Amino acid sequence: MKFNFVTLLAILASGVFAADETNTTTTARSTTTTTGSNSKSTSTSSTDTCSFSRTTITNATALQQLTSCETLDGEITISGNEFASIDLPQLREIAGDVTVINSKSIVAINLNQLRSIDGKLTVTNMTQLNTIDLSSLRNSQDLELVSLPSFANLVLNRELERAGKVILSDTALTNLNGLTSFNNIQYMNINNNKNITQIQFPNLRSVTDALILSFNNDDAVVELNDLEWAANLTVQSVGQLSASELRAVNGTLQVSYNLFESLNLSTLTYVGSSLQVFAHDELTSIDFKSLREIGGELSLFNNSELHDLQNAFPSLEVVEGAVAISGDIANLSIIVWKKLKVIFN
């Protein structure tokens, strides 16, 4: 049996190429303060807590006023080229949103006593930043490090217990340091870090929202060998992928633009939404021998060397959505497909 082209309703083939956009203008609680060369930052402080509705800090004098704060609350933006470094030696907790953005001068951020990010810490668009020290961090709700082309040194606590949302995009990092020890990940997006060649999560068993590993080093080796289930999983542009215990993906599983020759997900039994395998120049074989049900669409396209699907899906029984298979497919064998929508052209 040979299929030159198979079409289905619509194929979602979009990857994740960049991190979330940083938004630093939110509704203030009561006052808005801009701290520049001719103005002072205002805050309401109780002992060691510094609370702001919304403030922007643009010079070292204003930043100095934060050095005694153990807790920062509210929306705080640090921006500009009048800093060589940011050093907050007393800071223990970020309860609000702290954004460090748009600086060509800052080379280091030292938050080495910070233990908890209950709000959000964003560092973005910093061309000279080399080092971020979070060596005491134990708990993080939202950490986003984006567009930092010189950022090569992330100092993290090896005992980091929880990270809710993590985005790491467009950096010079060579490894993920303390970000790989979790048993569970809520949301992690690691993309466009061209020096990262090893992505290994030796303890990871579950992903409750999404794990996105996209367009890091083309030869990156990804090992997810303890991962049993994920809400959504995206793997793009890697040299090797291993997920030997993966049983279920409750949402979408996307594997695309990779450089490996074989894709073995032989333990996978269930995909709740769509299964997408596309844009491979070297892929010659796929193994989904335990897969029984797909709750959405099945899409296989633009895999130029993938010709034989004879034993790719021997257990597949249910495909709730549409099926799209394009390419020079010589053999395709499926025992039973129920609830199947297919359009052959």
From TrEMBL:
Name of the protein described by the UniProt record: Cell surface GPI-anchored protein ECM33 domain protein
Cross-referenced InterPro entries: CWI-Assembly_Regulator (IPR051648), Rcpt_L-dom_sf (IPR036941)
One CC-aspect GO term: cell surface
Secretion signal, residue range per the UniProt entry: 1-18
Keywords carried by this UniProt record: Cell wall, Glycoprotein, Secreted, Signal
Domain of life where this protein originates: Eukaryota
Annotated stretches, region: Disordered: 24-49
Bilayer disposition of the protein: Lipid-anchor; GPI-anchor
Record's subcellular location: Cell membrane; Secreted, Cell wall
Gene3D superfamilies in UniProt: Receptor L-domain (3.80.20.20)
Organism per entry: Candida parapsilosis (Yeast)
Single GO BP term: fungal-type cell wall organization
